[in-house]
């Protein structure tokens, strides 16, 4: 009996070693395949990042290039002690949280429709994805016209709602302007969220759904116990991509309000420092802080979802 089990153990160990060697070989191949892209990305992005970090240590204005002086971290202290920076940060976070939350709900509904529909599937998917194919500046101009007090259609079409009147000025105060900006952002990028969630839906096993249905699970139970748990990795990727994109919002604000009524984001505030006021030192410091805050946001989202992407793709 012992003599029979020994060869079986050896075979098991050999199989495990072979699987481990195969996995290591695949990892090495993957590293070799992505290495050229990583090197190219570093060459393209590393120099601007290093240059921005370098300039952030100087008091440097293009209108007076000879007056450049090394100030160390004074630019960072100036920014972090400025109320305008923190107001812009709160505005940016508000836009990010609201738009991503709404897009997640609507995008999931769109993804379910695109996944389940049988008749005219191609036409339906194309129709849903059209807004994402429109340039952001063009979309912003369209929504600026829609919310215009003089010739927009929003007031006349929706004046039956209690908070909308014929003379509602959507760009006259902070709440209305923020609402208009968020609507334009949601309309433009919800299809992208739906596309990422559709990829996650495709990974949900139909056998699991059928088994749950046979066991008497309702649609809500199948959604919360089968679909959403198996889409966790896709949801994390969708939220991560859209949150980082929304956190860097610029185009909609530039076109629709130009930062008026307190609607400027961190990116728009950086633009004003660098382009309008030509403060390269201060603007570079703000861009460095923006980059660091994006890294922090990405880390928080990944930690919040606690998704093991290796197991999610079946390697666990």
Automatic annotation (TrEMBL):
**Where this protein primarily resides, as one coarse class?**
membrane
Provide the transmembrane region boundaries: 29-50, 93-114, 126-147, 177-199, 280-302
Q: Which UniProt keywords apply?
A: Cell membrane, Membrane, Transmembrane, Transmembrane helix, Transport
Start and end of every ABC transmembrane type-1 domain?
Answer: 89-301
Q: Look up and give the membrane topology term.
A: Multi-pass membrane protein
The organism's superkingdom is given as Bacteria
What InterPro entries does its record include? MetI-like, MetI-like_sf
Location(s), subcellular: Cell membrane
Q: Does the keyword Plastid apply?
A: no
The UniProt entry's sequence similarity note says: Belongs to the binding-protein-dependent transport system permease family.
Protein name, please? Sugar ABC transporter permease
């Amino acid at each position: 009996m012992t003599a029979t089990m020994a060869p079986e153990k050896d075979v098991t160990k050999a199989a495990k070693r072979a699987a481990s060697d195969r996995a290591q070989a695949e990892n090495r191949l993957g590293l070799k395949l992505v290495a050229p892209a990583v090197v190219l990305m570093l060459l393209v992005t590393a120099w601007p990042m290093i240059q921005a970090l370098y300039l952030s240590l100087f008091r440097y204005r293009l209108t007076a290039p000879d007056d450049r002086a090394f100030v160390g971290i004074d630019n960072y202290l100036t920014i972090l002690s400025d109320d305008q920076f923190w107001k812009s940060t709160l505005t940016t976070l508000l836009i990010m949280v609201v738009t991503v939350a709404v897009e997640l709900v609507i995008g999931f509904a769109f993804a379910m429709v695109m996944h389940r529909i049988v008749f005219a599937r191609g036409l339906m998917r194309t129709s849903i994805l059209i807004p994402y194919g429109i340039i952001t500046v063009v979309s912003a101009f369209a929504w600026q016209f829609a919310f215009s007090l003089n010739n927009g259609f929003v007031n006349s079409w929706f004046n039956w709602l209690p908070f909308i009147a014929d003379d509602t000025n959507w760009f006259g105060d902070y709440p209305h302007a923020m609402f208009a900006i968020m609507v334009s952002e949601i309309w433009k990028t919800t299809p992208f969220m739906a596309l990422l969630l559709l990829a996650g839906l495709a990974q949900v096993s139909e056998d699991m759904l059928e088994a749950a249905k046979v066991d008497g699970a309702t649609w809500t139970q199948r959604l919360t116990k089968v679909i959403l748990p198996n889409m966790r990795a896709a949801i994390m990727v969708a939220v991560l991509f859209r949150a980082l994109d929304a956190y860097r919002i610029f185009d909609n604000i530039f076109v629709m309000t130009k930062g008026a009524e307190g609607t400027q984001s961190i990116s728009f505030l950086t633009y004003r420092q660098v382009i309008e006021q030509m403060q390269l030192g201060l603007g570079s410091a703000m861009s460095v802080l923006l980059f660091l805050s994006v890294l922090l946001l990405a880390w928080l989202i990944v930690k919040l979802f606690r998704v093991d992407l290796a197991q999610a793709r079946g390697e666990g």
